[in-house]
Task: inverse folding
């Protein structure tokens, strides 16, 4: 099992320099990944400061050497996929092949879509997400590529260079369980990041929930290639043994990444900083 931290991009976490320092400390403490939320605004108060995750991740890529990194997750439907293709390849090269792209439908449709004139209907965003993923994969190939879809059209072009990683930058698909469609989508890509219905930012899926998710995704797989199962969880960071006991049932189910949920709702930035420095909950 790999261990990452998952941080918001608002409130106390809206200073990019502070986040770069936190990522460096996470790497030094033995964490395997540093992932950032991708929100435009804080949905319950648009006056709260927010930082752009992509520029911050670029700075983190330069200042770290080993830790994996990426947005967790970016709503692809509010981005132009060809722009995301350029950004992700650049970030993959900047990090020497350490990028993981977390994508999802996007929540808070009124606050982050409708409020800015973007498509708010979930069904339309789902179709845009699927088309956007096809465009991303085609442009990442480095080969001549064209596309004609309902939402996106690309005249034949060739994006060079391709990513460092082959066959592509890993794509983790987020979804809300027990909604099945996101996990059918995840089964076609490289990883699944499930959240439960009504799960708060400080909640977590139970082992029983994760067992159902893993079983369903494996039923949908059409190849035997590697697939990451990602869990957002909470460990106190006060006892290595206690942390390992919390994590162990998830590892036994096939969860490959534990993302420690770091955010303002768990406590002050200082408290979360201490949690990061305590290190990952390794078994």
Result:
């Amino acid at each position: 099992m790999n261990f990452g931290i998952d941080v918001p991009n608002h409130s106390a976490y809206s200073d990019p320099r502070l986040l770069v320092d936190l990522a460096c400390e996470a790497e030094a403490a033995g964490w395997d990944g540093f992932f950032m939320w991708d929100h435009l605004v804080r949905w319950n108060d648009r006056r709260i400061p927010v930082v752009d995750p992509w520029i911050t991740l670029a700075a983190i890529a330069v200042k770290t050497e080993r830790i994996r990194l990426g947005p967790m997750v970016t709503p692809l439907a509010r981005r132009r996929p060809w722009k995301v293709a350029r950004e992700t390849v650049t970030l993959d090269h900047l990090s020497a092949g350490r990028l993981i792209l977390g994508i999802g439908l996007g929540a808070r449709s009124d606050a982050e879509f409708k409020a800015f004139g973007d498509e708010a209907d979930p069904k339309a965003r789902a179709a845009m997400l699927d088309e956007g993923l096809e465009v991303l994969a085609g442009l990442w190939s480095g080969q001549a590529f064209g596309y004609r879809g309902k939402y996106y059209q690309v005249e034949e072009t060739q994006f060079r260079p391709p990513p460092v990683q082959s066959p592509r930058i890993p794509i983790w698909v987020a979804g809300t369980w027990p909604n099945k469609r996101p996990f059918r989508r995840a089964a076609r890509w490289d990883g699944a990041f499930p959240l439960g219905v009504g799960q708060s930012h400080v909640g977590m899926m139970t082992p029983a929930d994760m067992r159902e998710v893993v079983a369903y995704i494996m039923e949908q797989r059409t190849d035997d290639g590697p697939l990451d199962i990602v869990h957002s969880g909470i460990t106190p960071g006060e006892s290595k043994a206690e942390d390992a006991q919390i994590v162990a049932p998830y590892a036994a189910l096939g969860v490959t990444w534990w993302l420690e949920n770091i955010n303002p709702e768990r406590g002050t930035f200082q408290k979360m900083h201490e949690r990061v420095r305590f290190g990952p909950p390794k078994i």
User: Anything to note?
Assistant: The longest strand covers residues 171-177. The chain has one domain: 2-278.
